[in-house]
Amino acid sequence: MSGRFLLDTNIVIALFADEAIVKGNLAQVSEVFIPSFVIGELCYGARKSGRVEANLARVDELVAGITILIGDAETARRYGEVKNNLRLKGRPLPENDVWIAALALQHDLILVTRDAHFQEVKSLKTAAW
């Protein structure tokens, strides 16, 4: 499988659940990234869970082994463009998802997600694993 991929939160959760399709696809790609916003969502989920320390440890292990992309001024410009385009279409997305889409567009990455609403973002390439 060719391409450079950015993982959404639901894909990382599927990876944590040992879903074969996600693990198999990840084994076939060479460039995979995770947005810092996804790490935030995972840490929030871990803190809400009944296994806080174990789940935070899984997040830490993930962070240690993958490249994390963080937002910068260009990401913010892309965010503004994406959010305004969605507003004009009357199709808002959750805030973190707008940031994730902006990062994917900025770095020309394929966003791997199970959220269909990302299809509303113009020029965003997505894959569903």
Overview of the molecule:
This protein is an alpha/beta fold and 129 residues long. The protein is built from six helices and five strands; from the N terminus they run βααβααβααββ. It has helices spanning 9-16, 20-27, 36-48, 52-64, 73-89, 95-106, and strands spanning 4-7, 31-35, 67-69, 110-112, 125-127. The protein has a five-stranded parallel β-sheet with strand order 3-2-1-4-5. α3 packs antiparallel against α4 (52-64) and α5 crosses α6 (95-106). The mean pLDDT is 97.
Feature tags:
alpha/beta, globular, 129 residues, 6 helices, five-stranded parallel sheet
Content of β-strand: 5-15%
Strand order of the largest sheet: 3-2-1-4-5
Overall average pLDDT:
97
- Percent of residues in helices comes to 55-70%
The number of helical elements comes to 6
CA-based gyration radius: 15 Å
What is the overall silhouette?
Answer: globular
Instruction: Write down the oligomeric state.
Output: single chain
Number of strands: 5
Main beta sheet: strand number and arrangement? 5 strands, parallel
Poorly predicted residue ranges: none
Strand-and-helix sequence, N→C? EHHEHHEHHEE
Alpha-beta content class: alpha/beta
Brief overview:
By secondary structure, the protein is of the alpha/beta class. It contains six helices and five strands, in the order βααβααβααββ.
